[in-house]
User: Fold these one by one.
Assistant:
Number 1:
Amino acid sequence: MERKTPNIQDIARLAGVSTATVSRAISTPSVVSEATREAVFDAVRRTGYQINLTARNLRRRRTGAIVVMVPDLGNPFFSRILAGIEHVAAPAGFSVLIVDTKQPHAEEGQLFTYLHNTRADGLISLDGSLPRALLERLDGSNGLPPIVFACEWMAGGLFSKVVIDNAAGAAMAVRHLHNLGHRRIGHVRGPQGNVLTSARLQGTRAALKELGLQIVPEWFFDGDFSLQSGVAAARAWLALQERPTAVFCASDQMACGFISELSMEGYSVPRDVSVVGFDDIDIARRFIPPLTTIHQPRNDIGAEAAKLLIERIGTGMVAAPAVHEVLPVELVARQSSGPAAPLVPY
Amino acid sequence: MERKTPNIQDIARLAGVSTATVSRAISTPSVVSEATREAVFDAVRRTGYQINLTARNLRRRRTGAIVVMVPDLGNPFFSRILAGIEHVAAPAGFSVLIVDTKQPHAEEGQLFTYLHNTRADGLISLDGSLPRALLERLDGSNGLPPIVFACEWMAGGLFSKVVIDNAAGAAMAVRHLHNLGHRRIGHVRGPQGNVLTSARLQGTRAALKELGLQIVPEWFFDGDFSLQSGVAAARAWLALQERPTAVFCASDQMACGFISELSMEGYSVPRDVSVVGFDDIDIARRFIPPLTTIHQPRNDIGAEAAKLLIERIGTGMVAAPAVHEVLPVELVARQSSGPAAPLVPY
DNA sequence: AGCTAGTATGTAATCGATTACAAATTGCAG
DNA sequence: CTGCAATTTGTAATCGATTACATACTAGCT
């Protein structure tokens, strides 16, 4: 048994060549002669040699890793996006490093070490609320790694991003409800200050206005994308004197929480109120009733973001213009939305 | 603007000391004099110097990263476990690297490069079906990194693991149904060959036997933990002449799929059949009806696994005996399970 | 003053690869 | 047989930190 893992020197000795040749045989086989190549590969096989990536990366001035910043790892919404990222990054030779930005240890100082280019060659952020100060120092300008946002983004358009048309999605949801005959439509918002919240809110407002429907402030409920906040919205809905007959929730999780709470209180969806979600998470089609929602291609978002980032890393990340990719959304009509009840209760 | 990021030499020059002193000022501040320390820190501040982790890691012969192997990143069951791992690993100075073992690129050869110690200092696997051949070469013996399994594990007890008592959990579920008066109890299995599948199946069988209930083969449905397989099990249940009055599903996802499909066919839970799940995923408490299930402390599982691994990495990973940690599960009774109907229909 | 112990710093080797440059070898045309 | 280009290989510098060892200096004691 070896005392330690073999290194390139050991291979060189065994194959009777220099380390330079070993390196070449491994990285650019075409430039070494048939015979030497075989000798080297044979030595590699015999020893089980594995290249030391740390050393290679040091010399090549790269890390072979990309960091993904996730607002909340516990939220299943992100799982498929991560899968999409991993699906593209791994074959391209990049490891995927994940950071939960909402963890207490992820304060500005800590985050910066992740962004720094000795840790990763690039960064994908699913969190649009990273401290500005942090990012201004980044994105290629100072030799620091390129950044791509996905799902969420930062105002200003400075950074590349892969997103969906949130306003359009929201408008689709509202129009769908309108088509079903609903004229009193409410909305459960995402968390304050979130870009998705404002985009979906704005889309909702615009569609309501366009359809000539009134915008009733009491019908706009606070939320934060979580199940629990959907529950809270349902309680608020129950407390209303005049209730909207349909509610568009800015996330499926909130829609589930909303329906669940109403159901516990003896109300039924869509009989008593129609509900539309946003995201099309896995459970949506199997919720009871199955959720009408705006489908987001989560896998593709992750994959596209990774593709974009890796491209940037490859091109020496010179201050290329930011790319803004917008992926399509579609309405998936299921059973949580139905025709509006006649104006006068039967 | 600098042409490139500053390195330790630049700091040394600026502070008027040697690189050795800079290194010491940063890693072990107590051994340098007050004055020098200040000079160094000042230079660091002025330049925005960030240590090059690749170089440090090369010299220290470590990577500062741990790899987590996830059977299916798209499955939300794993999200909280990842969060638990990240929560412990990040403050301890380890980055978390994730690999989806079910991706096509994750073949044996590829996987091995992840396991190799130039990539990571240790490995947490949530996948109990890694190729044996792969693992036999690992776990400290050859200077390769230590491994901890979490949730799933590999038969043989060679590796450390953090798990729950799956058989006990299954037995709790069965006993709960028995207490409610059910005498005809079925089970939806996990995927073939999975350790969780067999443990939960075995626990189910044992409890049935202990309670003097019959074990009817037709009441044991195939599944693979997914929503869709729960749907399939529901169809199988519907097709039966003699149906069990209660079904224990080996995962919440299957339980949701099962209930959902029955509901679409006009059946209602728990009126027509009681259902118990396993895992207590986030949506469980908000499903309709809220799911009775076996609660797994997913966050803790991840955190414990990370703690264990990091400990091992710290102690130079000499062939320490494998540690097998078993975390407690508990039954959470909600509304998907109810009293058995009287033997003769009303 | 002379000696010891302790503190602070510098010199240079080292981690394990990559690669610019030089040198050696081979092939072939003239 | 000579000369030149093309191919293959080796030498040694390099990436950016850490650390063993050596050295310089200070303080305290006899």
Note: Residues 17-21, 24, 31-33, 36, 55, 57-61, 118 of chain B lie near DNA strand C (CB under 10 Å from a C1').
Number 2:
Amino acid sequence: MNLFNDIRALVIRSLEDMAAEGTLPAGLDLSAVAVEPPRDAAHGDMATNAAMVLAKPAGMQPRAIAEALAARLLADSRVTLAEVAGPGFLNLRLAPGVWQGLVGAVLTAGAGYGRSTLGAGQKVNVEFVSANPTGPMHVGHVRGAVFGDALAALLGFAGYDVTREYYINDGGAQVDVLARSAYERYREAHGLEPEIREGLYPGDYLIPVGEALKAKYGASLLDKPETDWLVPVREFATTAMMAMIREDLATLGVRMDVYSSEKALYGTGRIEAAIDRLRGMGLIYEGVLEPPKGKVPDDWEPREQTLFRSTAHGDDVDRPVKKSDGAWTYFAPDIAYHWDKVERGFDQLIDVLGADHGGYVKRMKAVVTALSNGRVPLDVKLIQLVKLFKNGEPFKMSKRAGTFVTLRDVVEQAGAEVTRFVMLTRKNDAALDFDFDKVLEQSKDNPVFYVQYAHARVCSVLRKAREAGIACDDATLAAADLARLDHPAELELIRRLAEWPRLIEIAARGHEPHRVAFYLYDLASDLHGHWNRGNEETSLRFVQEGEVETSQAKIALARAVAVVISAGLGILGVTPAEEMR
RNA sequence: GACCCCGUAGCUCAGGGGAUAGAGCGGCCGCCUCCUAAGCGGCAGGUCGAUGGUUCGAAUCCAUCCGGGGUCGCCA
């Protein structure tokens, strides 16, 4: 149920009819024809740009097209007014019954209102978080986790078949560092002084891992060379870290469908196979890179490496897949991993990465383009920094000192739901200020509270109505005499509800879950405004003393608002509040 | 030096090529005998960083500059 799509379909059909009867030339491209809410509500309910878009290709005056189109649209019972305005807009007014009927449709569809078939069941893989398994998740990971999870939910709502996936970076040098760090804690568990050298992970979170190693291995790993204990300790520690990370994610309300391991790609021949495939395309060669201009690293010296010709697909320089010592770079298993995703049949890949990985985007896109023969698009969403504040003062964190702010710190202080909502009140590529005090403030300055309050107000109305003996289940409300919703303020609120399915499609197409948060804020604002109008105009209050049928119609509207807020919060991973106390 | 992101009201930010560019905060003025005033309404505040270009139409797309941030072979 998307009224804008319905009316657009009507416009398109009318244009095709006009072409068939010769009013318009045949074979026009109608893809740019749009039906949108006008900027100014005084212009009408909906506006189409058809006449302006088609004027040139049709070789006609915009006005002539608009007028002919208007005449046709008026033949439809839903359209009550169609007038040409401005440079050639066709402004439409719809019959009140169309809007009133929407309230019933929302209540009938319930949580499904706004669901779209846009995705047409296409398989989309959203890879997000992918934090190194070397410690607990910190605040920097939180935003990516929330963003990825909400994006996945949004795409699911828009009709895509979504897989949430975590790529475990358990194959590189950092997990060896983890193993050495854990080994020191193991020694500590045996009463020895741990040597947390420069470069090791100093965090306390490894102390229980050391204890657990002692419980499992006793003293058998003490005084052994690293070559003896590195592999088992690494295995043990990464498993422990991943268990911790899964718990962290659960704390935030994030659940992955698939965990993929980098390490599992080694020794299977899949990295080699992926590189060979690229080699077969002429995209792998041995060569020496130019030193970067401007800022040359101190220890730069030209070396021959195995390179991927990413410049063939839009990158700026070719990228090494092997280090000078012959080992794979991080890039190589990632190539194999993305190939694996392509092979698993995904129609679209999305990687959610920290903004500091921006330099990685072009080569990754080049890989996916090459390995899928251009079939699979990869969209990389870069997540900007979160700056923490407390009482307006910057909140410092330092990973090196082991005193970084963890995901759990954030969730314990702010709560998972508040954290999720606030993290989505900015576009992914804009930095975000997160103030522990502000996000918990119970006032309209706090968008989480503001939206929750709107939902709670509707719940309050329903409680009052039930106390007054008015039946308020959704089925009854949907069948109410909705024609009684004839006040301009009521119709305005309904128009906002009508935008919800459209908003979903726009947000899904752009991979922009923040739009949902902004929409909910606007909807909540409309509800609060309407509520207060009831102070002066008592006929606008939802519960009308002694008038059951009118009350039911008005309550149906309130309930429809709550249904949409609830659905929107659901996408963001937030539970709607029944009351604010 | 190259690449990526950002630049919109005093501040924080929205704005899928459309009409007179919006919201919140801050400032000023109002609204509770009344379903939650934890709220609402109004006023003031803009050369959309700059200059060109594409277009019937540009904050939006392209180019070039300016300013801020990030990244830049053998880390992941």
Note: Residues 169 and 404 of chain A are 20 Å apart (CA to CA).
Number 3:
Amino acid sequence: MSFLPHAIRPVTDTPRLRFAPSPTGYLHVGGARTALFNWLYARKLGGQFLLRIEDTDKARSTDESTRAIFEGLTWLGLDWDEEVVYQGANVERHARDAHALLASGHAYRDFTSAVELAAQRAEVEAKGPGHAFRVDRAKVDLPAAEVEARLARGEPYAIRFRVPEGTTEWPDLVHGRIAFPNKDIEDFIILRSDGTPVYNLAVVSDDIAMRITVVMRGDDHISNTPKQILLYQALGAALPTFAHLPMIHGTDGKKLSKRHGATAVGDWQHEGILPSAMCNFLALLGWSPGGDLEVMMREELVARFGTEGLLKKAAVFDPKKLEWMNGQHLSRLPLGEVSARVLPALVGAGLATNEEVAARHDWMLRLVDLLRVRARTIDDIVRQAAPYLREAISYDADAVAKQWKDRAATRELLAATREVIAALATWTPEAMEGALRTLAESRGIQAGKIFQPLRVALTGLGVSPGIFEVLELLGQPRAVARIDAALRELA
RNA sequence: GGCCCCAUCGUCUAUCGGCUAGGACACAUCCCUUUCAAGGAUGGAAGACGGGUUCGAUUCCCGUUGGGGCUACCA
């Protein structure tokens, strides 16, 4: 053991991170990505991942959104530690912190009313571009006697932070050193005249209370950071480490929004995307393990994640690659994990009942196993599964047009095929293949000429798993019955 | 407008001064083949621009351009 500086840190000093969404809508992919990185970091280092709902904007926050956030995170498998913190429950502490800053001289009272302020701002901005309104501390920070007088009259006031001279800078885990001259930061309000806290104060107050050590969030928060650092310092609290992640854009390079189609994680859940694929895909937006590695299961993501791989550049969300990624996960995940998602979807689509799934579990697993290879989404599997789960099938028009072109000839061929199938003593792929290829030879045609019409007869579709696997899955009686049905269809 | 961040194929990215710039998605062609996938092979496709620093710049520095974010008694 050497005496490296970090070795003397207490072992209890594990990283504490949080995801702090405001419940004003569904959980979108950008938020999910931020949550994922915080979670990965905490899980990798054995720290805590906390969840805080920033619901201080009562007008926009809804319980439904909060629920959507819980559901989204749960679906993604991003479990949080400790109890959920609701920012709204801490407004008293926020106000206390604001008044402490007032008492210590780090803040002052501003008696300007909100409407008055807005009017002043409008007046300046009306002069055209280039004219930016700026609060003038000399006019707003009144002499003690004046403040006392107004206070005695019961005039309402907001509390404004007194931005000190100098430069505020921090070593960002993603960007390295970032610095802001304090002269560019306006004295900002931390407590409204109605006594409620403003965002930057609430965040800092809560992060201190929650003992957050690493603040990882979107880089749209970079310009909030100097204000927050100033608050930490004025409050006499230790600074957390900051990491600002790049944004996620839509295919047009603009900030991701509803216009880009599915942007809520719930949308992708309903489109049949697996949570592990979603996490894998999202992880690659703003982070890289280095090298050529792309497809990673959850454990590998945790094992490889690190701040060294964090990227600075905004990434474009490409749904095509997400679907490819999902196809990879569909094939590579243990069958049990895939079926755990697919089987309920089959029930949900009305193709099977929970009782049937339970009664024929192994058969169901075999079905999922055969279908998952050629699917990119759970919905793809559901769409392909119908012929195996329903008694009556419908015939796909394109498949019929292509494979049953000559109806009379097809009927005759299928009749011959039926006899071969029905006569099989052993129901194995080897037996089926041997018998069907013999039939093809005896008729002097290619085996495919038998397989294709048969596929349509058995499934009603032009595409399916290998023909012998289909036969095996259906079982001899149903296979024969399907061919009989096809013969009637062709009559 | 001011401040801040960013800049390699269409997209996600590798490269931590030596590059014939690698991989993946998408696209095209081919192979495999009972269909469709999967898999394999091949192809087209990139260092925004201008200055430095250096024996040597995609890589380091400066500027320009472009994109993004913030600029509230929103979060």
Note: DSSP finds 22 helices and twelve strands in chain A.
Number 4:
Amino acid sequence: MNYKTPKCSCEQCQLKNLFFSHVSEDELFDICDIKEERTYTKGQRILNEGDPIDDFLYMKEGLVKLSKSSGEQKDQIISFSKPFDFVSLLSVFSSKVHMYSVTALEDSTVCVLDLNVVKNKAQENAMFTMDMMVRISEATDKIIIENLIIRRKQLKGRVAHVLLYFANYIYERDEFELPISRREIAEYIGMTTENVIRTLSEFRKDNIIKIFGKDILIVDKSRLESISEFG
Amino acid sequence: MNYKTPKCSCEQCQLKNLFFSHVSEDELFDICDIKEERTYTKGQRILNEGDPIDDFLYMKEGLVKLSKSSGEQKDQIISFSKPFDFVSLLSVFSSKVHMYSVTALEDSTVCVLDLNVVKNKAQENAMFTMDMMVRISEATDKIIIENLIIRRKQLKGRVAHVLLYFANYIYERDEFELPISRREIAEYIGMTTENVIRTLSEFRKDNIIKIFGKDILIVDKSRLESISEFG
DNA sequence: AGAGCCTTATGATAATTATCACTATCTAAT
DNA sequence: ATTAGATAGTGATAATTATCATAAGGCTCT
């Protein structure tokens, strides 16, 4: 067993406002009564592509990647989820099995609801379902648009984009520890590991970033933005 | 005015079963009472990126493309919608404006519901909302996965994939008229027009397909499938 | 019919990216 | 500590794709 199961009291849980604004106190109790939290350490697999979907998961703490393996051992990273994102988001209402694998990139805590309870609630409370639908379509829209953005850049622009993505969107700081390997960057932007490494080295030589292993410091952000936009 | 507005009787409309299986006859009447159909000729723009979202649209007849223009004049095609697909699908519940443009590739008929009526219905009928959510997440999943598939192929594989996509998924025949130009194929698969043309010529020279302008005949389908899969 | 514009087409060349080969560094496990 | 295996890093070369140039064919508009 690789997770702990402390019950948390939803009355004081900030997640309540984010997810269940149209759920009454009574309903909330039903939902939270069956809620558990699971914590995963960096690198642990949370869900496997193809696993049956039994739970409804959302991020409480940490960072995870959603990925899909294509044939042999080539993985593609689809997106990253941070606190308050749904994890089993994409297929949870339209598929019997998970379409993606989910892996912890940092020590992460996931809140787990029984999917059937959520589904039942969704069938009787339309406002709840509406909220859910809005959040799902926002999240999938973001994935689709992020993909479009990456695809129209070339190597340097893509690498620059990823650095800015972590700096601006995930960490909100210009100095951070990369939560993923060079290979995973490559899997996210659709380039080879070698070229990702080469590009990072080039940014370093051009004094755009400083690199200490996985620690990145963005020195010249406007330059990086310009590369991201124009190549 | 570039559309006709014949009311149609929903009692006998096959769309009823597809979209509104959890809506009562009375509710159906409310919805259909405000329904109109719009027809567009090949090439006509149905929606513009950035337009405010007032309607809820779905395909009754024809074929459309969803696209996004990135800066200058470079377009990216996101997906194609055929009958019974939602058109204003992606952003309709999560954005005030359309995130994509929609253009008719063939003469097309679109059913138009007032978005507020649909939203009101969604807020009071949870089963209806559930149905909608399932359909939305199915459709967006399909877009995301199709993108992943395309991105891991190279030029020849991508072109082969597109041909098979139209043959298998859109027309269900091995002989069909391409609904899009070579340039649009390029915008869909993220390659240049010249290389798309070159690749098609190469397939023709290798007796994999026959080309008469926009008319395509797939001669050696297993070969095309092999190229799509392995390059 | 002819002018202008877009699409299709093909070739030559340049740019970009992948592959292969080899080291170095780091991490986990004994 | 020491080895094994993954990750990071660099260079040379090959493969892939883009760019530029140029031309033929279609289409629309007058």
Note: The first helix of chain A runs from residue 15 to 19.
